[in-house]
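Please, structure for the following, as tokens.
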Amino acid sequence: MHIPDGFLSTPVWATLDVVSAPAVAWVARRAQRDTQDHRIPLLGVMGAFVFAAQMVNFPVGPGTSGHLVGGALLTVVLGPAAASLVLTAILVLQALIFQDGGVLALGANVFNMALAGVAAAYLSYRLWGQASRSGAIFAAGALSVMTSACLALGQLLISGVPMTGGVFWASLGLFVVSALMEGAITVGAVRAIERLNPAWVAGPQPASSRTVAGVALAALLLVVLGTLIASVAPDGIQRLTGQGVDSTSWPQRTMGGLAGIAMIFALCYLGGKLKSRRRSA
């Protein structure tokens, strides 16, 4: 789902950089206002979990894989503002440290996944949450991915990336499969977190140490074991942009993943603490 550098035209990536920067600043202010101090550990552990989950690709079609984006999961657990902020931190870390997604295209990736994707998840969750909570969570996951995917496809088309009708519709079909899997995984993840601590899901109560430890352990297992069985095929956007399979060895992926979850936890947790101190000053 990450657009690399060199495929978006300058007007497209520059416009999205300009749009995304103030939007993220606004989201940060909302997250500072809405996130209670005792829920700050959620920012770190959920960021680490989603970062780890994004490393585990699963097959969605011939020679193509997908992975959890996590916008809907973060939205249901943290609320929309904090979800956007945490996902932005993940995307920044991936682009600057792990070369996953372009630096110039960072504004586009943030707009597609952390802003528009989270907004789609939040709106669908609010719209259908009273009728069927599981259905609303599923829809939030699926629609967030489809929103991000359609925006990415549109941006590539506007930028002049060659794409025949057959390639376009095949790509869209693969994204539908990814979206359905995102919805199912999101439902399962939310239900698992609720079994650990029901009040932790977008609730006012502090997370128990058991819940924090459980999610942290899940993130570690995803990095160590999930990357061992993960598909090495490119995802839909990587395939469109001509990127090949991942040739990184399992130990390299594991060590990089462990470093990544440590960095994203520290970034989200310490950032939340800093915002908390500024708010109370």
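The chain has ten helices and two strands. The chain has one domain: 10-280.
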